[in-house]
Structure formats: C-alpha cells, structure tokens
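Annotated sample (chain length 158).
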Amino acid sequence: MWAVVYQVPGALSFRTKMPITEKTVAVRHRRYRDMAVALKIPVFQAYRGKEPPRFASQAELECARLLDYYGVPWMYEPRTFVLEQDENGRTTEAFSPDFYLPDQDLYVEITVMKQSLVTRKNRKLRKLRELYPDVKIKLFYKRDLERLAQHFHLDLAS
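Output written by the structure step:
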C-alpha cells in the first residue's frame, strides 16, 4: 500500500528516461522494486517546510501545486502523531498527515486508494481524533481528488 520515496541522483527515470537530480523526486511503489518514476519538482512559493518535499505520489505533488498556485501556505508531512506505544514506550503505530496548512491550522490527508481499501486509514484518523481532539484534520478520498482534478485540470495519476 505504501509508496517508498527516495532520491537516486544520476539514475534515469523508468518512465520518462529523465536523469534524476537533486531537483527531482523519485517515487517507487512496492510492485516496481527496480524501477523509479521521476517527478519534476517545481519551485514552490507557498511551501513553508525546511527540507524539499519528497512526495509519495503524483496526487500529492498535484495537490501541492494547487495549494501553491493559490498562495496557500503549506508544509509537507511536518509532524508524526503517535497513535500507539508498547509497554517500553516505543512507537508501534503512528500517522503523518500529508499536508499542514498553518493559516487554517488544518492537516490534510489524501488517498488515491480504492474506497474499499481505506478502512485502515479511516481507523487511524479515528484514533488520531480520539488521542488529539484539538487537531483538525480532513481526509480527501479518491473521488474528492478526481472531482478536484477535473475542475482544475490536474494530472493525479498515481
């Protein structure tokens, strides 16, 4: 289910055959163990993070572009919420929402999984809301993103 994000400077993207540089993010899905997909990182004006964002999917990149286009300050995965710990205090379950919008004090999570596969993510969100009642978070499902993509002519393929 998870996409593993990494950078491989000097390698070529599997799909685009573009060289992967420091200005490129490679997204590698589990099913493509030996292949990298390069995403061109634009220069973000409204991004408020310290490190360049490393997106897990094309959908996240397009959402970041949309936020940036409208000048909405945002951060990418700035905080990880501990949801469960073992008896030794080690984290056994955690959740890092995709975006944080500081002006709205709102976390945003997006998912492009099929609706039938989002049960685990919904459970984590319920847990987060129970443990951190003051944290505002909104989940956008695939259908929500498809509507946004259609309206704003975005490429959310992932």
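Annotation: Confidence is low (pLDDT under 50) at residues 1-8, 23-37.
Annotation: The domain at 44-152 is CATH 3.40.960 (Endonuclease; Chain A).
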